[in-house]
Design a protein that fits this description.
By secondary structure, this protein is an alpha+beta fold. The protein has a domain at 108-309: Aminoglycoside 3'-phosphotransferase, Chain: A, domain 2 (Alpha-Beta Complex). The protein has helices spanning 8-20, 54-66, 108-125, 130-133, 141-145, 154-166, 168-179, 182-188, 226-236, 244-258, 265-287, 295-309; strands at residues 25-28, 34-37, 43-48, 76-78, 82-86, 90-96, 194-196, 205-208, 211-214, 221-223. The strands form three sheets. The protein has a five-stranded antiparallel beta sheet, with helices on both faces. Strands 4-9-8 form a three-stranded mixed beta sheet, covered by helices on one side. A two-stranded antiparallel ribbon has the order 7-10. The longest helix is centred in the C-terminal third of the chain and has 23 residues, at 265-287.
Length: 315
């Protein structure tokens, strides 16, 4: 039986992996994956990460090479952990072929584990000053907030149309910020910052043997940790067995246990409200698919609007 030909891209990646793992057996598979078999009998399987844009690929590559992800706390991992340099394609990011959560009907326990992992990650990264992360090329906060605004994708546009119809009071707050996020960016800067993973959705997440693994770091930004909280919960809503308040409390309790970020009082209340509003800017078009369980979001959007209009002492 004849072997299927290897594509030019796969051939370059194969050669780069062979240079990286000179003592291992490296093979390109017909399905586009690559196997690296070490002399000790262990085998790793990699796939090429599709970054979405050159800038996103460069950002992920910088984060991987910086060693930042080696600081992740126990129980938290990053799936993007290999960057290989090719002759004509530049840097290629490779990820272990790790099973991902299903896109829909994610269990309440999985949600809890992910929220706890986010709180741990944010607490660790809270100790990294901006000067140490300035070279990572993190996505500007305003661009992160408007990454999924109307006008770029039919599915996203349809979702926003449904959101506007089903939650008109919320849309009245969200639409101006999608067009000009500066007021929300200014309000978020009054919250204690950390490194925000930026793309926490079920299909970019794995949970196995007590470890939560985040797959895509190409949208990482700097800001309050509640940005990940809000965008993740909006992406998986509604959650059977968990209210919005339950999700917020799960994340808050773990932050309080670790003691490195605000987790109570007015500062926490404001960050949580603004983070949930930011989550709506990112994934409100997904919320629009659901007719039920939107009342809690309406309340939090109103709270967030009050929060950013209120003067707040800087940390």
């Amino acid at each position: 039986m004849e072997c299927e030909p290897v594509s030019p891209v796969a051939l370059e990646v194969l050669e780069a992996l062979q240079r990286r793992y000179s003592q291992a057996a490296v093979e390109a598979q017909p399905d586009g994956r690559f196997t690296v078999s070490e002399r000790d009998g262990s085998t790793a399987i990699y796939r090429i990460v599709e970054p979405g844009s050159p800038q996103r690929a460069e950002r992920a590559a910088r984060i991987v090479r910086s060693g930042l992800l080696r600081s992740l706390p126990e129980g938290v991992a990053a799936v993007v952990n290999e960057v290989v340099s090719t002759n004509s394609l530049g840097d290629i990011i490779l990820a272990p072929d790790t099973p991902q959560l299903p896109n829909g009907d994610v269990s309440a326990e999985s949600i809890r584990q992910a929220l706890v992992a986010l709180a741990r990650m944010h607490s660790v990264f809270a100790g990294f000053p901006a000067r140490l992360t300035s070279g990572l090329g993190l996505l500007p906060l305003g661009q992160w907030l408007t990454h999924d605004r109307p006008g770029g994708d039919r599915t996203v546009d349809a979702g926003w149309g449904a959101f506007a119809a089903r939650l008109p009071q919320g849309w009245a707050v969200v639409e101006p910020l999608l067009m000009n996020p500066a007021p929300l960016v200014d309000a978020l800067r009054d919250c204690q910052p950390t490194i925000v993973q930026g793309h926490v959705i079920p299909t970019k997440l794995s949970i196995m043997d007590g470890t939560v693994t985040f797959h895509d770091w190409g949208l990482a930004t700097r800001g309050p940790g509640a940005l990940d909280l809000g965008s993740f919960v909006a992406a998986v809503w509604p959650i059977r067995g968990l209210s919005l308040a339950d999700c917020v409390e799960t994340y808050r309790v773990e932050r309080a246990r670790l003691g490195r970020l605000p987790s109570e009082g007015e500062r926490w209340d404001r960050e949580a409200a603004l983070g949930l509003l930011a989550g709506v800017l990112r994934h409100g078009w997904m919320l629009g698919e659901h007719r039920e369980a939107l009342e809690e979001w309406r309340v939090y959007i109103a709270l967030a609007r009050d929060a950013w209009l209120t003067r707040w002492p800087r940390l």
